Structures are given as structure tokens and as C-alpha cells.
Amino acid sequence: MVEQQSDADIDRVFHALADATRRDIVRRTLVSEQSVTQLAAAYAMSFAAVSKHIAVLAEARLITKRAEGRVRLVRADPAALARAQELLRSYEDLWRGRIDRLDALLSEPEPTPNES
Questions:
Q1: What is the DSSP code (8-state) at residue 68?
Q2: How far is CA 66 from CA 24, 37, 91, 92, 93, in A?
Q3: What is the distance between the alpha carbons of residues 39 and 56, in angstroms, rounded to a whole number?
Q4: In a 10 Å sphere around its CB, with 0-12 CB exposed, 13-18 middle and 19+ buried, how is residue 50 labelled?
Q5: What is the layout of strands, in order, in the sheet containing 63-68?
Q6: Tens digit of pLDDT per residue, the chain (116 long)?
Q7: Helices 20-31 and 7-17: crossing angle, nearest 10°?
């Protein structure tokens, strides 16, 4: 069963995942918790740009950030990713059902002109 999420929450998740850098940040932080500095070093962009990507992911609740002294650590939230996956699965089920009904309709024999 898909947990009820607002349209705004769903939009934030898919907006966050629409960017390749953000998807890579999620992938890296699923493997292990990383500092913002470690993440920034992995990309050919400024620290500020990586921080903005992290903020978008945090707003979508796909990652969590925590402070350990002066270091900010980032970890992906597998539960949030599972919710996004379940939502996609529900859309897939919806469209598969529609396609199955269309296939059934199209496979019905056409009535002959004498059958009215």
C-alpha cells in the first residue's frame, strides 16, 4: 500500500531525483555516510553548488544531514527511496491495467455488418 503523500511532497521527490548529480549523491550516501566536504570533492563544481544539491535532497527527505562537531554528515534515507519506488510501482500497475483493458478491447472480434 502506498503511503499517502501530498502532491507537493511527490513533486519534491521527483524533482530531486531528476538531476544526475543528486541521484549520484543519493547513490554514494546509500553506500556510506559522507561529509558534505567529501561529496563536494567528488564533483567538478563548487562546494556551494554541491551544498545546494544536498539541500534539495534534504527538502525532499531523500537524505538526512547531521552535525558531528563542525562536520556535516549526509546519509540517504532508504525508507524514503522505498516510498518513491512504491509510488512508481503503483503508477506502473495503473498503466498496466489500462493497457490490459485496451488489449482486451482491441482483441474482441469486430461485428460483421449482418450482426446488428
A1: E
A2: 19, 13, 33, 35, 37
A3: 15
A4: buried
A5: 34-35, 71-76, 63-68
A6: 445 678 888 899 999 999 999 999 999 999 999 999 999 999 999 999 999 999 999 999 999 999 999 999 999 999 999 988 998 898 898 899 999 899 888 888 887 777 65
A7: 90
Kindly report the pTM of this predicted structure.
Answer: 0.77
Q: Are 36 and 116 in contact (CB under 8 A)?
A: no
Q: Are 56 and 16 in contact (CB under 8 A)?
A: yes
Which set of grid coordinates corresponds to residue 8? 507537493
Question: Is the CB of residue 76 less than 8 Å from the CB of residue 53?
Answer: no
